[in-house]
Amino acid sequence: MKNLYKSIMIRIFKNPFYIFGCMAAFAITFIVAWNNSPIQLPIKGDTNEKMIFVSAAMVAFFTIFVPLITNTEYSDGVIRNKLISGYTQEDIYKSSLLAHMTAAFVMWGVYMLAGIIAGAKVNSKFILSNIVILLAVLSYVSTMMILAFRLTKMITLIIGAMFIFQLYFNFVIFGNLFISLSKGVLNKIIVIIYNIPALGQWFSNTYLGEEFNNPGRIIQLLISVLVIIVCTFIGTYKLNKRDLV
Description:
Layout: H1 2-13, H2 16-33, H3 47-54, H4 56-75, H5 78-84, H6 89-117, H7 124-150, H8 154-181, H9 184-194, H10 198-205, H11 217-236
């Protein structure tokens, strides 16, 4: 599986869309987060808070990128060639998942660098909040991988990916309402469910979020890890028995 991982990493790091994405991650983060930037967006807060706010762009990016790369491997016959070489579909899935997670980690690193250069205050809260964002993005990548490997037609795949993104976005909007109307044990349960989607964790980390929709950073990290484990299981479940059309 090591060779599979290396091959997909090479394809990712040579991909113009990914290179552009990393450049955009740096530029957007720096421009928005830098307090002395000539371009001031209507975003409140200090550099640290502005950084967290723009981190949602990484979720949007991987909504497109994960399906794009995976579907290209299907259409170009790359995945079929890997199967002919003796690898299983589960091997291909796990190596691709790890590669996309690595790509997300690198982009997150670019985002962090831009924020620090822009003047972010590096303290324990800053580090923990952004680690939460990283794990949330990784959990989102694991979600996109399920679609990418199950839906082999590009149009269907893109529709499915955009549907998930829109569903998560609306989940945040209505989730805040349900949280504010609930109390006691029900409230705690809704808060946990609210933080399962990556955008839920993103919102609770921004200045727009409040303590009522945040179960705690450690719990958020545990939720993301659990999402990754569950999504990986779902994504690989009986995958080797599937016939490629």
